[in-house]
């Protein structure tokens, strides 16, 4: 027979890891998307918690309904959300790069619903988002994320452990990598499209009687698709690098 105290201790052993794991899944890409079923997300968090809870350091006795328990619960949720937020920035960089290219090509009006965030984005952003999702799964980014999440319980055990002073600064400054990554992804094609538009402007200035703008719109779209095809290997390489840096940064939050 199990006593009430033993059942409560067993519940605490699984309760605290579940908060951090479920918060990561809530904010992380793919699993945290609006198209991912909520029940499946909760079941996945419960399953992983059941696997990793026996192997993490012993959780101190904390009153779950007291003030200390609420603070610990909030800390676990914040830690999980911070890890997921860092990876979300990598996918946001792909969306911003697609939006920049769509505006430069004249495809800004072609919108579609992004299943990751549930908002309307240009079709090129949707293309880069699909590529980023498939690449993230191919390089086993989801497995690396779970591995780092399990190791985080060793580096930052459950309890009223003070976070680093620059914890929040690292999370906020990482958002700048979203714009930097988007610029690196879209810069080659954007530069070529800028030169094409400059060439059309020179031709229009030299021969005003020619209706260059009627020809320039489809030419810009065709040139944009050709540039996207030519720069695709570099884009995939940059996304892989950003995934590597993003996962490392998520793990470095606990250094």
Q: Can I get a quick summary?
A:
This protein has 255 residues and is mostly helical. 74% of the residues lie in helices and 3% in strands. Strand 1 and strand 2 (119-122) form a beta hairpin.
Structure, explained:
- The chain has 255 residues and is mainly α.
- It has one domain (4-252).
- 74% of the residues lie in helices and 3% in strands.
- It has eight helices and two strands; from the N terminus they run αααββααααα.
- The chain has helices spanning 4-27, 38-52, 67-105, 123-138, 141-155, 167-174, 176-206, 212-252; strands spanning 111-114, 119-122.
- The chain has a two-stranded antiparallel ribbon.
- Strand 1 and strand 2 (119-122) form a beta hairpin.
- Helix 7 runs antiparallel to helix 8.
- The longest helix has 41 residues, at 212-252.
- It is elongated.
Number of spatially distinct domains: 1
Radius of gyration: 23 Å
Which consecutive residue ranges, at least 5 long each, have pLDDT under 50? none
- Tally of strands: 2
Proportion of residues in helical segments: over 70%
Strand order of the largest sheet: 1-2
Number of helices: 8
How would you classify the helix and strand content by structural class?
Answer: mainly alpha
The biggest beta sheet is recorded as: 2 strands, antiparallel
């Amino acid at each position: 027979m199990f006593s009430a105290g033993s059942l409560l201790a067993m519940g605490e052993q699984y309760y605290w890891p579940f908060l951090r794991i479920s918060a990561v899944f809530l904010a992380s890409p793919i699993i945290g998307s609006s198209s991912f079923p909520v029940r499946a997300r909760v079941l996945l968090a419960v399953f992983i918690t059941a696997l990793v809870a026996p192997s993490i350091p012993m959780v101190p006795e904390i009153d779950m309904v007291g003030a200390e328990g609420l603070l610990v619960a909030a800390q676990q949720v914040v830690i999980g959300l911070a890890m997921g937020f860092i990876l979300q920035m990598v996918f946001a960089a792909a969306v911003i790069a697609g939006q920049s290219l769509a505006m430069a090509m004249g495809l800004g009006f072609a919108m579609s619903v992004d299943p990751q965030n549930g908002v309307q984005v240009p079709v090129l952003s949707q293309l880069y988002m699909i590529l980023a999702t498939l690449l993230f799964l191919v390089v086993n980014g989801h497995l690396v994320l779970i591995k780092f999440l399990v190791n985080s319980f060793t580096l930052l055990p459950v309890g009223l452990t003070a976070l680093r002073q620059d914890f929040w600064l690292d999370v906020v400054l990482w958002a700048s990598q979203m714009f930097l990554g988007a610029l690196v992804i879209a810069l080659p094609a954007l530069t070529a499209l800028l030169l094409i538009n400059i060439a059309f402007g020179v031709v229009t200035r030299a021969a005003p009687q020619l209706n260059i703008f009627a020809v320039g719109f489809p030419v810009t779209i065709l040139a944009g698709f050709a540039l996207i095809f030519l720069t695709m290997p570099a884009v995939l390489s940059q996304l892989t690098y950003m995934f590597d840096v993003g996962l490392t940064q998520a793990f470095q939050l606990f250094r």
